[in-house]
Design a protein that fits this description.
mainly beta; elongated; two-stranded antiparallel sheet
Amino acid sequence: MRKIVVVIVACLFFVTIKAQSVDLKNNVVLNVINPGISLEWVISKKGLISTDAGIGYSGAFDEITIIENNGFNYVIAPFLGVQYKLIYNRENRKNKGKSINFNSGDFISFRVRGRGPSIAENLTRTDNIDFVIGPTWGFQHSNKKIRLQLDFGPQYYFDTLGNAGFFPLGIHFNLGFNLSK
């Protein structure tokens, strides 16, 4: 198992070094909405691996929460996520005079995100740890140091006890500050 991990890390390192000559750049973002930090690593000419960690807001999922009221339901909990982003329109943006700084562009992606124990909530979760996975479409645009990101797509969610379900349209919105030069 250790050998497999070493080979994967070595391959990602090699691809990242090889990809440094393209417009995409490794980037660090300090997020304001769902406070935390995002790290973006270039792995190909158009591809990034984005990891993020922080404290975030999310809503209720039928199969992994017990709703105790009829109002607005929420969970505030630490999260950790990994997302592969394929940014596909950078050349068009550049030709139109739009910014491509800090990896600006439209993307399709696949996201995996886990939530930890709740800090605050107004419902009961079936487990303290749960996950969402799924494809997304979105954009991230930067104006100098400020970055806006919005993406959405279907989500499959599950907890470690085997409870699971499908949510047709999950939305992720964030505003942050690019810390890279």
